[in-house]
Each structure stands twice: as structure tokens, then as C-alpha cells.
Amino acid sequence: MVAPAPEAQSDPGQQHSQRLLGTLLGDYWFWRPEHLPSAALVELLGEFGLAEPAARAAIRRAATRGLVVASRAGRTTAYGVPERTHELVIAHVTRLMRFGAGDRTWDGRWTFALFSVPEEQREVRRTLRTRLRWLGWAPVYDGVWVTPWDGGDQALDVLAELGVDTATVARADLADRLPARGHPLRAWDLDALRARYDDFLDRYRGLAERVRTGAVGPAEALTSRTRLMTHWREFPDLDPELPAEVLPADWPRSAARECFVAIYDGLGPPAERRFAQLLARHAPDLAPLAAHRTSEDVRRGEPAEPAPSPGAGGRAGWAGPLGRR
């Protein structure tokens, strides 16, 4: 999917519709340089209950934010993923697919960022907090943020970018020398986080069983797989993969990931068929190029290379300005 900007949007409805669009492009079209006709994107969003005016508005807003880029062929407008976001999208998708895999080794240390931002620089303070949260940090106190991972360089980059020079970043092994109320783990609301994982499992366990038995058709596969991804993408922003060493033994993150992977990978082929069916109504030459990928494809960093484009010179009729990668 197309990676979101760290700053949240003010309208949750707009944010949701743009996430749907980004997820659809990322899951079935991101590796393609060709642009898709707007009518096809409108129909794809219609699968999720968006009326045509709302779908077109979502596409325009995504273009305004730079999440997609527009091109024209005669009177027809088409959209694709801008090349400048290529590496960002790869990093974002890889982060989602690796999240919860349990393959990170914790060295027992915590990284702290201590900073002071003047009261009159409220926008800087807000942006700094938003960016740190997106990177997996959380506040122990107002001006003391923490992560269990070695994220010091990233934090220093953000602080420098925002001009915050009254700051200190350090990594420390705390062992058991802190009172319970001062432990870094208090920066996260574990009860609320557990509830989110439990809600995810309650919502999707039944679907996972239906996927296992092959009971999900193409149309449902497309909508369910996309909604699953938009739900899963929330977790890396809530949980920086807190180390198992500091969590309860029955922590539900691994179970939630197993459920996610079973559905995401299992629904890939039928969802791809539905995506291609809808695209074929507006650009039949492009429909065969739609492709899904599995969680393991992304984790290994081995996305499929784009197949040759149809048409003269290997370029499709709807091809936009991205060019070959």
C-alpha cells in the first residue's frame, strides 16, 4: 500500500477511503509503472460501499497529498504510484509484513530521547510527538520518550529536522533499578493494547477458518483482504514490537499475526482475480498484469518483477510517466 504521511488527517472518513485506495494499489499494482484509469479505481472503491462522488473525491485528495500521481490520455485521467515514494512504500510494506514475526533480538536496553520545546513552538512539539510515535516511541513523561530498540539515529534525525537542539538521546541497560511507576514499559497502555489484539482475533478468527476451507469467493476475498490490511496496519503504530521478555507469557500478538498471515496469504489468489475482473471492464490490456504477493515474499524482500507491458514498445495504453524500474 501507499505509505501514509506520519501526520494524521482531520477527517477519519477521508483517511479511511484513501487508505483503501492505497492498500488496493499496494497489494495488486504497486510494482507496476502503468497508471490505472480513474473509472477503474472508482469501481474498485465501490466494492467497499463508496458511492462514485465519494470515490472520486478520495482519489483527488490522494493525488493532492502526493499519494498517487495523475496522467491523462485524451479525455481520460489515470493514476499511479509516484516514483518518489517507491523506497518509502517498500519500507512501509516490509515493516507491516515483518511486524510480530518474532525475529527481532532484544539486547535488554532502552533508548531514551529527552527534549525541551518552548511553549510557543506548539506546532513543532505536536509534529515531533507524531513523528516519534510513528517511529515506535512513546512518552514515559512529557519530554521523556522511550523505545526498546536502538532508534537513536532516527530520533536525532527528526530532532535535527525540526530544529530541536535542546535534546539528549541515550541508550541504557536499566536492569531492575527502577520503581514500577518509573519503568519504561509504563509508556504503553498494555491493557488497551491487549484489548486491540483480542478484538482483532475475535473479528477475524471465523474468516481465517473459512479461508482454510476455501469458502471465500473472489469478491469477498478482495474486500476482506483489504479491510484486514487496513486493520493490521494500525498495530505497528501502537506497538513497537515490545520485547517478549517484558510482556506477559500469554501476550496475543503472535496469535494475531498468525491469523493475519493465514488470511492475507490465503485470500491473495481470489482477491487478485476480482481486482483483475474489475480492471478489465475499463482497461482489458492491463488486467492480466494485476498480481498479489504473499507476506513471505515481502519479508524476504523479493517482490515480483513487473512483467512486460502490453502494447507497442512494451508500454501500455494507460502507462503514465513513472517509467521502468
Walk me through the structure.
- The chain is an alpha+beta fold.
- The protein has three domains: 12-91 and 278-314, Arc Repressor Mutant, subunit A, CATH 1.10.10; 110-172, Alpha-Beta Plaits; 189-272.
- The chain has helices spanning 12-28, 38-46, 52-64, 86-98, 122-134, 152-161, 190-212, 218-232, 235-238, 253-266, 268-280, 295-299; strands at residues 36-37, 69-73, 76-80, 110-115, 138-141, 144-147, 167-172.
- The strands form two sheets. Strands 5-6-4-7 form a four-stranded antiparallel β-sheet, with helices on one face. It has a three-stranded antiparallel β-sheet with strand order 1-3-2.
- A hairpin with a 2-residue loop joins strand 5 (138-141) and strand 6.
- Residues 188-275 form the Transcriptional repressor PaaX-like C-terminal domain.
- Residues 287-325 are annotated as: Disordered.
- Residues 293-303 have a biased composition (Basic and acidic residues).
- Residues 21-80 form the Transcriptional repressor PaaX-like N-terminal domain.
